[in-house]
Amino acid sequence: MAGMAAKRSGWLIAMLLGVAAIVLIGTGFVNALPSMISGASRQAPIVVSQPPAVDFAAGPLLDSGYDVSFPQCGRLLPAPTEGFAIVGIHGGRPFADQPCFPDQAWWAQQHNGFAVYMNTEFTGEGDPAALGREMADDVAIRIRMQYLPEQTPVWLDVETDNYWRGTPEQHNALISAIANRLTELGHPVGVYSAPNLWRTITGGADPGMPIWLAIGKGTREKAENACGRVGFGGQTPSLVQWVQVAEDGALLDHNLICPGVTPTGLLLPTSSWQAGT
What pTM was estimated for this model as a whole? Predict the structure, then answer.
């Protein structure tokens, strides 16, 4: 009797394993397993053709800087330094006005280098490529309205705080369309995100452009350590952002140019623009 029970138990286990294998194969889990283990993405890379950028081979005199946007409206910003600043164009969502953009853009230009960033999202409605181009055109207009040069680098903010209700393929089509439309208009582009956010939104696709890595609350030392690791999409970061308490007790975004990175195309040198070159 014990032998019969053991045989039945073995048969039941084998049957359950077989059913589980069928389910996993059907869901694509088995096919995805190698890429999950290696960290690679099954999504096609995003391909971006960068325009000529204003040379900034020497970089700013300081390798650190700040980024600000509408949360800093009404706050006293740090005194301009020989580093750099990056300013948000939108009020948290694409097409939304950022009431402090004019003042913050002026403040950013008092640094050695500056750039801007834009919000991105896909609500699941419409053609993502067409919507991406529309978002890019809107950003280009806002840049021109502030009399900023067309070579101003634009960073694409890709975060789950915004709406992402399509598929990774749709999201990647939108990101690609934004980036390539901006480059057509003369703006070098990069992308800002964090590993989990990027993987959730894009499936971990290679972004095809420089990356600006967010590491959350931390220190300069933590940011320096992050420079030597893979950021997201299989790329190592060009810039790393960490959040630190400012003198007024509020949180402020700090940024670092990673060692060995030439910031041409990442930041616009203020001196060359002011000289009219």
Answer: 0.84
The H-or-E segment that residue 22 falls in is helix 2-27
CA dihedral 27→33→34→39, nearest 10 degrees, is 110
Packing angle of the helix pair 168-184, 195-202 (nearest 10 deg): 100
The residue assigned the tokens 């290696």 is: 38
Q: Which of 50, 106, 42, 51 is nearest to 80 (CA)?
A: 106
pLDDT tens string, the chain, 277 residues long: the values are: 444 444 455 454 445 444 444 333 333 333 333 334 334 578 899 999 999 999 998 899 999 999 999 999 999 999 999 999 999 999 999 999 999 999 999 999 999 999 999 999 999 999 999 999 999 999 999 999 999 998 999 999 999 999 999 999 999 999 999 999 999 999 999 999 999 999 999 999 999 999 999 999 999 999 999 998 889 999 999 999 999 987 777 889 999 999 999 999 999 999 776 544 4
CB 35 within 8 A of CB 42: yes
Question: How many angstroms from the chain centroid is the CA of residue 158?
Answer: 5
Q: Using CA atoms, how far apart are residues 231 and 225, in angstroms rounded to an integer? A: 11
Q: Is the dihedral of CA 269, 89, 222, 35 positive or negative?
A: negative
User: Of how many residues is the chain composed?
Assistant: 277
Q: Could you give the 3-state DSSP secondary structure of residue 186?
A: coil
3-state secondary structure of 35: helix
Write the DSSP symbol of residue 150: T
Show the tokens assigned to 48. Answer: 């971006």
CA distances from 230 to 38, 42, 70, 176 (A): 13, 17, 30, 21
